[in-house]
Amino acid sequence: MSMSKGTVGLIGLAVMGENLALNLESKGYKVVVYNRTASRTEAFLKGPASGRDIVGASSLDEMARLLPRPRQIILMVKAGRPVDEVIEQLLPLLEPGDILIDGGNSHFEDTERRAKKVEEAGLLYVGTGISGGEEGALKGPSIMPGGSQRAWCVVGGMLKSIAAKAGKDNDEPCCEWIGPGGAGHYVKMVHNGIEYVVMQAISEAYLLMSSLLSMRAGEIQTVFDNWNKGDLDSYLMEIAASVLKKIDPETGRPLVDVISDRAAHKGTGMWTSQSALELGVPAPSIAESVMARYISSLKAERESAAKTLPGPTPAVYGKDGFDDASKPRIIGAIHDALKGTIICAYAQGFAILAKASETYSWQLNMPSIAALWRGGCIIRAAMLADIMEAFDRQPNLPNLLVSPVFRDALEGVQKGWRAIIALAAQGGVPVPCFASSLSYYDSYRAARLGTNLVQAQRDYFGAHTYERVDREGVFHTDWTSEE
Ligand code: NBP
Asked: Does ligand 1 come within 6 angstroms of the Cβ of 77?
């Protein structure tokens, strides 16, 4: 009787697992679900899953019996130890050819290790990034699968069917094979690194408007809404505007005003920065966005330092000699800084991907990665169409900054970007991400930096040698000799 396209197992019924199960079922798959805490399975079956082609398993053993071979099992449990624990428990219950798909935010090195172990047992392993949060999981996330190519041939159709769709006819699935081993989770990690920058940059725009221009949440929301209709059209811009609209029912104030400024994190931005450092890829905007969260968490120290450390008070619009034209001008400059910073975020993310691809022999396809981030994921943005085109035209583009479309965009924003950083510095408003991104841009476009002096000092104290600009070779100088 069933018109099912197939049966799939899903372990872990928290936010992501529940919604993915519903998404799979809506696309014609029968889903066998299991959760460690049985009450959660029961609540799901009685609640959102009732009347749907979703059945519960009370143990992993029962799940294994309910699934046809080769079994396809998606793990949506907490990243880290839980994934290892579930794999340990599953291995004795499964048979060669069965496929395990880890859809959590696992570290790519863990995925490499697990893939080896699982494949030694004759099973196939897919480590896939899934982005889009709760809504994406339900309606169509962006999916970044990596691991066994043989497994992709089996599960590719299913993953594509539940993914978001993008493109001009909205029919291109945001799901494509990424590469072997941990490549899928690596790409998801870098996605999150870029996400950290965009979020931090939007918060700097908000801080500047509130501190320099005394704008309230509602007014900033209008600006964000407008930007979201133009070149900054993106999911994060849209939700930032939506957040600013929300009123706290208890106080009647904008909810954002009563939310503590301590921002937490789950580690993916840190992992991206660690990987960039290890691979030797400059990615200061990503690192700075992680640091911005760290410094935000030093709330008590900041509150105490605010009473003692000297600094200017920002000039305030309306009081300190701004003319009438200055407010739109400042808002325009904030827009420019935000756009420049977001371009740097993508440029750094793709530069990390390029180096990782070379280092790990993944052969990552940059236009395809840009394409699958166009829909469903947290960093989806109109800008991704330009990124896709830039890599399509020049597959070996050394850095997005030098592609014609972004070169022109940066030319358009740099004046305002510089002006707002100067104003922020004069007023003592911290804009770490805007400022470090501009330094990245200026460093990248500098044919000569001051680092000749660094190399000279290295040679001075450690005989590390140096190269010269006027002839080939490696040189060392006895810096203390009188000659
Ligand atoms: P959580 O990351 O909060 O994990 C909770 C799930 O893990 C529950 O089903 C829990 O079972 C299960 N679990 C734990 Br904890 N330890 C376990 C163990 N030792 N054995 C078996 N199951 C165990 O859930 P989530 O927020 O839905 O995220 C799932 C994955 O997707 C994570 O890797 C997350 O990073 C990733 N992700 C999340 C989002 C998002 O927006 N939330 C977006 C993209 C990716 P229990 O009910 O018995 O405790």
From this structure: yes
The CB of 127 under 6 Å from ligand 1? The reply is: no
Burial of 331-363, coded b for 16+ CB within 10 Å and e otherwise, reads bebbbbbbbbbbbbbbbbbbbbbbbbbeebebe
Output the six-digit token pair for 284.
Answer: 């200061």
* CA-77 nearest atom, ligand 1: 7
- Of the candidates 192, 35, 164, 175, the one whose C-alpha atom is nearest the C-alpha of residue 108 is 192
377 Cα: distance to centroid of ligand 1 (angstroms): 18
Task: Give the whole-angstrom CA distance, residue 322 versus residue 423.
Answer: 12
Q: Which residues pair with 129 in a beta bridge?
A: 144
173 beta partners? 165
> What confidence tens digit (pLDDT) does each residue in 88-107 have?
999 999 999 999 999 999 99
3-class state of residue 482 by DSSP: coil
Index of the ligand 1 atom closest to the CA of residue 18: 27
Q: Where are the beta strands (DSSP E) in 89-155?
A: 99-102, 124-131, 142-147
Q: What one-character DSSP code corresponds to residue 229?
A: T
Q: How far is the CA of 247 from the centre of ligand 1 (A)?
A: 30
CA distance linking residue 384 with residue 373, whole number of Å: 7
Q: Listing from the earlier edge strand, what are the strands of the sheet with 54-56?
A: 54-56, 29-34, 6-11, 72-75, 99-102, 124-131, 142-147
Indicate whether 318 pLDDT > 70: no
Mean pLDDT across the chain, nearest whole number? 96
Q: How far apart are CA 398 and CA 401, in angstroms?
A: 9
Confidence grade of residue 356 (pLDDT, cut at 50, 70, 90): very high
The SS3 call for residue 178 is coil
Q: What residues are annotated to the active site?
A: 188, 195
| Pocket lining: 128 vs ligand 1, CB cutoff 6 Å | no
For residues 394-401, average pLDDT: 94
